[in-house]
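Reminder to self: tokens first, then the designed residues, so the page reads top to bottom the way the pipeline ran.
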């Protein structure tokens, strides 16, 4: 099928690494972005299947008066509780993967040579990286990560440090990477590196296209 010429790339990184900013740069360069966090938000809207399962497992107290999921309350519940965290992931991950598959199919049918990037914090932990043609890991030192999160959230420095420690270590994520985006300088430096990787991915997509021609 002609739309098999497209390239599916996973983009991941820990809290404060610069993953979301990197995704925005790739989008500006013409890539299609499938944001796993936004997909999760859609799946937990009132009345959706995931919303119903989460309510059944975690109770009504994690929802606001209007029926919306209180993500902060849910995060507090699963933080430090591996069993509850796993339960939530078992509810969400299969639905996210299916949503991404349908979106990817729709994009590549319309744009056969598309570069499609799955922006997902748990790309590796969920096993979804296995479905990608290539994997990009955004990496940064802990000091920069903490400072970035402090600037955008109400979490304390200690809370942020605890959450980072609760995630897969960056050096472990890097082992799964085809490309590593080091992000310890400024936005301009990151953009330059994104452009370099985007060029390489475009070449890979072109090579894939050429190999498919009889």
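Designed residues (214 positions):
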């Amino acid at each position: 099928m002609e739309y098999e010429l497209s390239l599916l790339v996973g983009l991941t990184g820990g809290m404060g690494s610069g993953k979301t900013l990197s995704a925005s740069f790739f989008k500006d360069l013409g890539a299609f972005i499938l944001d796993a966090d936004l997909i999760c938000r859609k799946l937990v809207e009132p009345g959706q299947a995931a919303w119903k399962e989460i309510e059944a497992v975690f109770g009504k107290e994690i929802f606001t008066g209007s029926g919306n999921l209180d993500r902060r309350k849910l995060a507090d519940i699963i933080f430090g509780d591996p069993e509850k965290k796993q339960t939530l992931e078992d509810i969400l991950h299969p639905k996210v993967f299916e949503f991404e598959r349908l979106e990817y199919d729709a994009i590549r049918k319309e744009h056969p040579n598309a570069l499609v990037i799955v922006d997902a914090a748990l790309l590796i932990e969920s096993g979804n990286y296995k479905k990608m043609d290539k994997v990009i890991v955004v990496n940064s030192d802990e000091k920069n990560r903490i400072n970035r999160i402090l600037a955008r959230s109400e979490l304390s420095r200690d809370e942020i440090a605890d959450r980072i420690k609760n995630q897969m270590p960056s050096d472990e994520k890097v082992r799964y990477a085809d490309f590593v985006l080091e992000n310890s300088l400024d936005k301009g430096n990151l953009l330059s590196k994104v452009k370099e990787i985007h060029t390489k991915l475009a070449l890979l997509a072109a090579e894939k296209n050429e190999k498919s021609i009889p």
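The beta strands are 7-13, 32-35, 115-119, 134-139, 179-182.
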